[in-house]
Design a protein that fits this description.
This protein has eleven helices and nine strands. By secondary structure, the chain is an alpha/beta fold. A nine-stranded parallel beta sheet has the order 5-4-3-2-1-9-8-7-6. Strand 4, helix 7 and strand 5 form a beta-alpha-beta unit. It is globular, with a radius of gyration of 17 Å. About 3% of the residues have low confidence.
Length: 266
């Protein structure tokens, strides 16, 4: 089995005893050229993995900020085909940072499951996060991805997944995305009351790195659970920050550099 770009990145971080910092960016917000500029800025700043959100009309796992970002990107003409083209341009221009598509399954079905899997490999998509695709329904996509290690399906677990965690993690690759709170993204750092216990349980059962997402704004937010996680994911707050700074690449770079520094100084 050849190593995937996400796995290579995380192995490197483990050797350096560093935690991963992952950001979420809505593709096509405010437009494709700015998306490219921001991806490059994040790579320069040392972002370890970038989640690229594929705009969808009904993003059920996302809160108001990412819903609005998705809506605006769609109004501005963002489509899956254009996002694939954008990523192909980025890869052709030398961008090597692992990129994960965060998306909903309806978009994949509409594109064609096998055609989508083939295009992901061709365009340089390293991983997929699909919140509305239950473990029991992943077979078709897994089979479509199976003949290559270029694109892997990443698994999500939540505080109510306790009984399912061994099953979900059995053949999981890349990293496991731990949803830190119930509900949608962007609710702030009011984490599940037993979040440390939950993360410790996932960490104890996982052979792959454990990432914590939903509601994180600063490195200090994850300090109480730092021993149970291998990295943090910031989405809603990053979108808010970009808006406040008119999608300025320098603001994105500064935030990522500071977060990474603080995350690894804890």
């Amino acid at each position: 089995m050849s190593i995937n770009r996400i796995e290579a990145c995380l192995d490197n971080l483990k050797e350096r005893q560093e935690k991963a910092f992952i950001t979420y960016l809505t593709a096509g917000l405010p437009d494709m050229e700015k998306t490219k500029e921001l991806v490059k800025a994040q790579e320069r700043a040392g972002c370890d993995i970038i989640e690229l959100g594929i705009p969808f009309s009904d993003p059920i796992a996302d809160g108001p900020v990412i819903q609005q970002a998705s809506y605006e990107a769609i109004l501005n003409g963002a489509t899956l085909k254009k996002i694939f083209a954008c990523l192909e341009e980025l890869r052709a221009e030398g961008v090597q940072v692992p990129i994960v598509f965060m998306m909903y399954y309806n978009t994949i079905v509409h594109y064609g499951v096998q055609a989508f899997a083939d295009k992901c490999k061709e365009a340089g998509v390293d991983g997929l996060i699909i919140p509305d695709l239950p473990f029991e329904e992943q077979d078709e996509l897994m089979q479509a991805l199976a003949d290559s290690d270029k694109t892997i399906l990443l698994q999500l677990v939540s505080p109510v997944s306790a009984q399912r965690i061994p099953m979900i993690l059995k053949n999981a690759r890349g990293f496991v995305y731990c949803v830190s709170q119930m509900g949608v993204t962007g609710q702030g750092a009011a984490f599940h009351s037993k979040v440390a216990e939950y993360l410790a349980s996932v960490k104890a059962q996982s052979k792959i790195p454990v990432m914590m997402g939903f509601g994180i704004r600063t490195a200090a937010d994850v300090a109480p659970v730092k021993e149970h996680i291998d990295g943090a994911i910031v989405g809603t707050h990053f979108i808010e920050l970009l808006r406040e700074n008119n999608f300025d690449a320098k603001a994105a770079e500064d935030y990522i550099k500071n977060f990474k520094k603080e995350l690894n100084a804890m």
